[in-house]
Amino acid sequence: MIVCVCKRVSDREIARHARAGMSFDDIQFELGVATQCGQCEGCARDVVAQCSAGSPVASIQLAARIQESPAWNSPDVARP
Ligand code: FES
């Protein structure tokens, strides 16, 4: 699912980069996540942290938190 609405960056993309050993700052520079409104920064950082920890239970909890995030629930966002 999309974590950063402004840059259309998904949790999978962030996770893939995190598993490749990139830090949040590296991923932010590479993908542009959390570089516009900033609403997604907390969730994006959580994805990086969870993937670094490699915990499957944490990933389930993370998915729920992403759906509750302000960026995901923004009324300005057109959903497919
Ligand atoms: S910068 Fe990521 S949702 Fe706006």
Structure explained in plain terms:
The protein is mainly alpha-helical and 80 residues long. It has one domain (2-68): BFD-like [2Fe-2S]-binding domain (Arc Repressor Mutant, subunit A). It is 54% helix and 6% strand. It is built from 4 helices and 2 strands. The protein has helices at residues 11-19, 24-31, 41-53, 56-68, and strands spanning 2-4, 9-10. It has a two-stranded antiparallel sheet with strand order 1-2. Helix 1 crosses helix 3 (41-53) and helix 3 packs antiparallel against helix 4. The longest helix is centred in the middle third of the chain and has 13 residues, at 41-53. It is globular, with a radius of gyration of 12 Å. The model has no long low-confidence stretch (mean pLDDT 83). FE2/S2 (inorganic) cluster (FES) is lined by residues 4-7, 33-40, 71.
| Relative helix content | 40-55%
Strand order of the largest sheet: 1-2
Q: How much strand content do the residues show?
A: 5-15%
β-strand number: 2
Q: CATH homologous superfamily?
A: BFD-like [2Fe-2S]-binding domain
The CATH first-level class comes to Mainly Alpha
Bound ligands: FE2/S2 (inorganic) cluster
* Radius of gyration, CA atoms, in whole angstroms: 12 Å
Query: Can you tell me the residue ranges where pLDDT is under 50 for at least 5 consecutive residues?
Result: none
Anisotropy-based shape:
globular
Beginning-to-end CA distance, first to last residue: 12 Å
- So how many helices? 4
CATH architecture: Orthogonal Bundle
CATH topology: Arc Repressor Mutant, subunit A
